[in-house]
Write the structure tokens for this entry.
Amino acid sequence: MTSATALGQEIASCREISVVHGAGDTAVRALDRVSLEVAAGERIALLGRSGSGKTTLLHALGGLLEPSEGTVELRGRSAYVFQGANLLPYFTAFENVAFAASFAPSDVAAADASIALLELCGLTEKLDHLPSELSGGEAQRVAIARALAQRPGLMLCDEPTGHLDSDTGERVLDLIDALQAELGFALVVATHAPAVAARYDREVELVDGAMIRKAGLD
């Protein structure tokens, strides 16, 4: 399930991208000439307060948003984990993941792949549960399994613990880190918390849409 991209090879990049909402005197510059390269297997934290541009940058990297200026390149498939689980409410945990798996090229049946991913995320007993029957942490783990079903080379996580209590949030982050170590996808996690950012190989800090720091961690 690992990406075919060689470790260390650039898998995604944005170069001098700006995102402007509106026009004239009411225009808001959500990103201001931001450049970022992501290597295969790399783990990056996007650090910044609410409104700093983290989500906008993730959307641009994932192809969910076209920048007003600059270029974005993605080599391979990306998957997105939102702050809330955003599961299909009338689909079971299994059906939510299988729906995503059916769109991913695979040498095994989507159903088998979905069960395996849910088991990998510790949800063996929750396959037939609806989102309303899951805890917040369980729902977010289903969302992670759903993202993995797309066989990404790059996973983008937007404040994945934002709606969870601190203990559950830590467990979700531990799961993401363990899956990344096992499967080898590149990982970009947006967070406002320095303690979360400290988990990762490199920090990129944004303030008011501009990148002010881009450094590896000791």
Observations:
- The chain has six helices and nine strands.
- The first helix runs from residue 54 to 61.
- The chain has one domain: 10-216.
- Residues 121 and 175 are 7 Å apart (CA to CA).
